[in-house]
Amino acid sequence: MTDELGTRVVTGHYRPGTLLPSVRKLADEFGISKSTAQVALSRLEASRFVIAERGRGFVVQDVRRCGGFDVYGTVFRLSMADPPHAVAIFTDIVNLGRDLIIDLLGDYFQLSPRPAHGKLTALVDAMEVSARRPQINHTGFLLAEFGLLREIALTIGQSATVALLNSLSGVILQVPQAVDAYYASDPSAHVLIWRALVNALDRPEPPHEAEYALVGDMLALYHQRVIEKFTGLIAPADRHPRASAESA
Asked: What is the pTM of this model?
């Protein structure tokens, strides 16, 4: 019941500022006791989807404006019931992740002197071993990639970025389709990219601006494929009425 009510908030069935149905009405609708319905509403309040106002009831909150990453993760998970909304959220997540990668790499390359990067190399080595396995655990591989980014952030002293990376990975991991979408190509391709970036640390000078731009363009192209794969996973073309009509 909690997820169903949360989905109704996310998809706009219950608008911000409006009241949820009473405990009695919800109990009747879901065929449960009033005490069970009250527990579900309390959980929804704990997730900050609603606020209990004395004398009024439970008021729906604008979760897109007021929620932090903990709420955002729940919104993303529940938005699977509304594919266009889910794709919009995932697109924002992917774009934020790309911006973080580019900023972290830029800051790392500017360090003088640069620290030894043996730990980064070891992380890439472990990813390569994982990528060679017959059955690749995408969740574990994604966590390894975030672990590499976290190590870079810690090296340059960006603790707030570490917290953001932890939250971002938590949001993605709540939705299996999002995890799978990040591997629009074989994970071994990710290893090659990380290997090239880590090897670039041996260069005495930081990359030129044009090289940064090239990396950004390559990531943007790949992430577009990631978004397209996610769209196909949650809203296959054969489920679309328009596509069915055209095929007929």
From this structure: 0.83
